[in-house]
Amino acid sequence: MTVSKTARIAAAAAAVGVAVSVVVAVPTAHADNRRLNESVVVNVYTVQKQNNCATEIAINPKLRLAAQWHTNDVLHNRALNGDIGSDGSTVADRARNAGYQGTVAETVAINPALAISGVELINQWYHRPDYYAIMADCSNIDIGVWSENLIDRTVVVAVYGKGDFAPPVQAPIREFGQPPA
């Protein structure tokens, strides 16, 4: 039995169509940076203990949200390289918009690679006197950390707080720059 050239072309086209639909249906990979974010908290805790801090720094979801907003902003706006957001916001603005009422500070790491290890990160911050002072400040009792990756860039932001005087709020996660509902 011979198969006509037209039938072979049609079969090949159908196979390519199936292969393309399979490739399109495969979800893209998304890094889970929870372990890196938690290691930043542990490393800051260690720096504070080396500085004889009696308090224990605690993760604050409001500060984590403020850190997430700035991380995504810096990741996608390559002209940014520090504390000021693309909309002109400061760390205090972002923390306040996330519902945190207290004095805040921030450390930012931008790594020109897909990933950064906790050791690389803490070494960057530890050897910058301004960032070390923030990490070692015993009055920073709250922290929120967020990190995100692109194929050629990793951004990590930690937001530190001296105490939240606002009551807890239950609010849905919102995109950077959106005001509270």
TrEMBL record:
Residues 1-31 form the signal peptide. Transmembrane segments: none annotated. PANTHER family: SCP DOMAIN-CONTAINING PROTEIN. CDD domains: CAP_bacterial. This is SCP domain-containing protein. Gene3D superfamilies: CAP. The keyword Signal applies. Keywords: Signal. The keyword Hydrolase does not apply.
